[in-house]
Amino acid sequence: MAVFSGTGLDDLCLSLEELAVLSAEVETEMLQAAGAVLQEGQRQTLEGLGLVESRALKNSISVKVVQRDGRRRVLVYPAGERPDGQTNNDVGFVLEFGAPDRGIMPRQWMRTANEAHGDQAVEAAAAVYRRWLDSLGL
After folding, report:
1. What was the pLDDT predicted at 108?
2. Exposure of 133 by Cβ count < 10 A (0-12 exposed, 13-18 middle, 19+ buried)?
3. Intra-chain end-to-end CA distance of the chain, in Å
4. What is the pLDDT of residue 79?
5. DSSP character for 54?
6. Which residues contact 129 (CB under 8 A, 6 or more apart)?
7. CA dihedral 46, 50, 51, 57 (to 10 degrees)
8. What's the CA gap between 101 and 114, in Å, rounded?
9. Distance between CA 138 and CA 120 in Å, rounded?
10. Cα torsion for 12, 14, 17, 19, to the nearest 10°?
């Protein structure tokens, strides 16, 4: 007859229960890590496309974790107002989608940056998650 014995099962059960509930703190840290990668990617893309005359748009790109509809999300976008009364978000929108009546062609700087750096952003979030798993002994 076979006999099964083990040690540490209580700790494993506790760790698995902790794993079932991702804390808001860890979730926020994951989103911030991903957002930081996208922020840098957007800044690099603006620079690479030569869209940094005053650097105001590039320097305004912000990372913000928000909660909507019961879920946390990360926003990476140009924030703040410019001295001329326009918002950096408006300037970024015009550069992204263009303004044909003003002779401004779409440059899709944000889409390009997000697509180019998306995998790195996921990896940054995954690294935070792995550290959290390690802290649980898993």
Report:
1. 96
2. middle
3. 31
4. 97
5. S
6. 26, 30
7. 60
8. 27
9. 24
10. -60
> For the chain, how long is the longest CA-to-CA vector?
84
Distance, CA of 61 to CA of 40 (rounded, Å): 9
29 near 128, Cβ under 8 Å?
A: yes
| pLDDT 10s digits, 49-94 | 998 777 899 999 999 999 999 899 999 999 999 999 999 999 999 9
Take residue 8 and report the two structure tokens written for it: 């540490």
Kindly report the length of the chain: 138
Provide CB contacts within 8 A for 118, sequence distance 6+.
38
Determine the number of helices (DSSP H) and then strands (DSSP E) in the chain: 5, 2
CB 65 within 8 A of CB 74: yes
